[in-house]
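Below is how a single chain appears once it has passed through the pipeline. First comes the sequence as given, then the structure the pipeline wrote out for it. We keep one example in the README because the format questions we get most often are answered faster by looking than by reading.
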Amino acid sequence: MSGLPVDLPLTTDRLVLRAHRMDDLDDLVRFHGDPEVVRYVPWPVRDREATEETLRAKLGQTVLDEHGQWLVLAAELASTKTVIGEVLLKWASDRQGELGFAFGREHHGQGYAIEAARAVLGLAFDDLGFHRVTAVVVEGNDPSLRLLDRLGFRQEARHVDGAFFKGEWATTLVLALLEDEWRSSR
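Resulting structure:
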């Protein structure tokens, strides 16, 4: 198995999706430490020290050399050079991926997450040749479900108590988008 070529940065009308840098720390602390932002993501509320440790680990997550690897990109607002979120793509298995995202609360509802997700889906389907991309959402995360619906994802499964999440059992929803669905929606 050989790696998948990832040509960074990805750009949209308002965002630059790029590798993380250590000078992203102040921006990341703002939303990694916000309980509302991390409520439905698989990491805990982080202080500055924990965010810095995590950031150091993310510096190398810009390649897809093997199944199971995550591509983790900073979502930088082009106009201000501020990192307002993160978007992720996992190379799950042959021609299959998984999408993830988290954005600072002050940037919710402005279309940034869908803009970033569309760019990463373009990378997945158009550049990397993926056939299927999934997203796993904790039930109750309605904003993420609405965003995925707008992208064309459909729910494939509902796993009652399917994950031990933040100290308790949580129901998870599995959504998916196929390559031909992506192409027909564009």
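The first strand starts at residue 10 and ends at 11.

See the next section for the split statistics.
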